[in-house]
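Pinned message: reference record for GH18 domain-containing protein
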Amino acid sequence: MTVPRSGSQVKYELLEENKRTAVKASHLWSAVLLVILITCSSIIALYLTWQHMVNVSKEQENLDFLMVGPTKSSGGYSWKSRQLGGLYSQAEREMSRDLHWSQPHLVLNMSHHAEPPEYMLVCYYNLPNGGSTVVLKPDLLDPDLCSHINIAFATVGNGTIQPNLPSDLEVYKGVTALKKKNPRLKVMLSVEWFTSTGEFAWIVSSPENRTRFVDEAVKFLEAYEMDGLDLDWEFPNWPTVVTNQTNCFTELLRQLSASFRQR
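Predicted structure (tokens):
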């Protein structure tokens, strides 16, 4: 048995049904829009992450080139060196131009120019070893790429600097020859040692040994027209603890600095 419904009740039920349908549709569209928003946000985030990774990869490639040399053919070496050298030279020119300023309100008809700041881009040039199949020769280096080139590495023996290979001496000459193309370029020799014992420990152990090393090092650097010395000792007083070795190494650096300043 059905209960008869009034017209107003039927209208009310129809309105409620329409309202429920509208609410469902609203919820559905809200869900769709939320999914679209999340999808778009994810795509944008992925794109930005990808762009960041690409930029980091390019920066790392340039850094790897500076630090350990290129990994392409010899033609690629020269192109990459010229490319990075051009960027460095352009930045240097722009920095120099931007720092030029005038103050006519302070001194009539007189301009003052600030000197470009002293900054360094120090690059390590890895010497080719006997087993190298890919060699970056000195004449492929861009002389305008770096402010300083550290030739890596020499060692020590008999209380003074020694090349790792006899052929390294000719490479030294090839790198220092770049200064003819860029007189502002500084070329230094990196000397490595890996323990707190052995030859370097003996060099720093007494004032006489330190003085002999300094004198011989200066002669060696002058003979090959180098501008300085980079001591890569890893590390004084480690792994074997040697009493006062760190202080002795510091004293060696003081003596080297004093000797260099006299020239």
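Pinned by admin. Summary line: Residues 65-82, 95-117 have pLDDT under 50 and may be disordered.
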